[in-house]
Target: XdhC/CoxI family protein
Amino acid sequence: MTESQKTQTQRNWSVPETEVVQRVHQRLEADGSDVLATIVDVDGNAYRRPGAKMLLDDAGDGVGSITAGCLEDDILRAAESVRGTGQPELVTYDLMDDDDDVWGLGVGCNGIIEVLLEPLTPSYRSATDAFTEGRDVAVLTVLSVHGEDVDASDTDSPLAYGDRAYYHPGEDRLSTPSDDDGASGDGGETTEADWPIDVLSEPASELAGRGRANVIDLEVDGTRLEVFVDGIAAPAELVVFGSGHDVGPVTELASKNDFRVTVVGFRGAVDLAERFPDADRTVTTSPGTIEDDLEMGLDDRTYAVVMTHNFVDDRLAVETLLDAGVPYVGLMGPHERFEEMIEEFDAEERTITDDDRSSLYTPIGLDLGGGSPYQIAHSIVAEVLAVHNDRDPRHLRAREGHIHDRIEVEADPTPPK
Amino acid sequence: MTESQKTQTQRNWSVPETEVVQRVHQRLEADGSDVLATIVDVDGNAYRRPGAKMLLDDAGDGVGSITAGCLEDDILRAAESVRGTGQPELVTYDLMDDDDDVWGLGVGCNGIIEVLLEPLTPSYRSATDAFTEGRDVAVLTVLSVHGEDVDASDTDSPLAYGDRAYYHPGEDRLSTPSDDDGASGDGGETTEADWPIDVLSEPASELAGRGRANVIDLEVDGTRLEVFVDGIAAPAELVVFGSGHDVGPVTELASKNDFRVTVVGFRGAVDLAERFPDADRTVTTSPGTIEDDLEMGLDDRTYAVVMTHNFVDDRLAVETLLDAGVPYVGLMGPHERFEEMIEEFDAEERTITDDDRSSLYTPIGLDLGGGSPYQIAHSIVAEVLAVHNDRDPRHLRAREGHIHDRIEVEADPTPPK
Model:
């Protein structure tokens, strides 16, 4: 590899999650030699959580990361094997033992990591289409099937190891790959009726909504199934009101932290797309038509930063956002300015309620003490992340329990008939 | 302007503070048409603090920002005037009145901002040399001189409006511009003896060390002086131990947040400079020779992130850092892994003391809940910023008092003779 290739490889490893999914989306129609690696399970602690993805092409380049780097060489070799057989493989890395094996010494994360490697087929479009269109989705993969007797692998279940389906929570609908999609795997084709959707829909909805992944054990008609449910949440939306140059670093950092960013300028703000190249969308609006101009729903998964530096525009944006029930409205400026704004709200009989106040974060940002445009933006995006993830933004060393909350999702084994 | 020029201008406005000073350093020997704008005083609230800088060239381009954008057009005009006269000017922007003037409506920050505009001369090298060599410095500028009778401007003081000196805390030494430096200003040349160094050294040291700026009122032999003391702290040092690809985003974000970043790889780690282009320095080291290989002092202004993902290397790095008294040692990995490390320290009779524990941040980072490489890096750099600025990293809306702590520095009016 040349030096610039090395730099590029390095960069690809640490791209935002959203970029990994977008890259998968782009490569669906490639020559079929790409392999998708996904962390299925972690026992103990690891750098990445279940659901973390890496796309590997046949030149040995990877986009995304499933460890901090130590396992990547071995994963490239495993991908080569998957490419050869055309069949998915589950590979287990035991990093528990610090003393006597190469992984333990190299990674020292005290965890066992299970990785699913599979040839990327067009059937996966069902997942990436949902993501790019702003819908949550869960990718379901059968990891094992057993009869009532644990040793017997002969069952009546139509599902087999490697079978795949996509669950779409909004429509409560499963889609299954067909031969047209270039589907691969031992299990051949399945249909929607083959999957216990009544048992899986609840955990799949929850994991998809939170963008988390888990292995679900379930028992259906005497057959025990292990299904990997890989929830891919639509990116959280961040709407930034403002067009000053302080908007630039907020947009850049939010985008790198996996938010889909819309920059909204007031009153003929021009060249927004050129000035804020990291924004996914830019909109020019006027007081009174904000919601119409936005052309997007403002809901409980929208986060908003208000930094127009214009008192009147700020107030109108805040009012629109609070009326829409947005859970995070960060308002730039000192507390005194917000007090003035409250007086104006009172004068117009739009009283700020306790609910409004719980969504309003002003002065905006975490208290990190920085004063440069980047430092201010860093503290803003840190706050949005913490609110989005429902965290108390203290030092992690002060947190009780695990760094990543474990999601315990269980399928109800006796669904209503 | 073309679109790409607009994007460039936008980017220049929001560069890190360190880049503004570096840009000033580069432009010292330019054609002399550059104008340096510095916020001298803020009454009320404003986007930037005193000391914020913007360098304006005669093509109308600016690097750095002193507001979020609304005042920049007017500042460009003021710079044109300074360029014409060759004399420094103090310009005041009153943003207090929200109702009846253009600034109030546009900025709404409830503040009065005073900006010093001056032709950039080679004399300023005294400041930027210090910065690039890692030394703190304070730039002193006389804003006014009065006799005992307030109305009388005739005094015996050798100092006059616009006079300039540079204070170097480490050496307790003033340097003054000479004609050779292309110095400008009404007051002509001064010498070190003209400046009340015994009165100024204490506040100038404190402001330089903290990178803060303030106007100091002092009275010397019946003469009242107003001196703007612009403290420029050497960049804080962040040393990152590790060479996995998760080091990339930490390096990038720390650099944008004004840290000078050194990446330290163990045992023949190669291509570090190519792989981490945002690092200011890269070093390859071995256990036992860390401090020698670093070729920099580890002291109370060094912050360290330990993320080698190798248990042995991590422990050696942590030991070196704790022994050197570094105030922040962030260690990646779960708490259980740290407990194992403590056992090894105990076994080697290097007990971890309470002091050690107060410097150790593990698990590293703020609790923001993100799991992607960028989100992890964001939480790490947010924690380093908060510790560096001595802040409790909660939501700013929960903070009592001002967002920026006010530094009250007073010169002792009766210094020891």
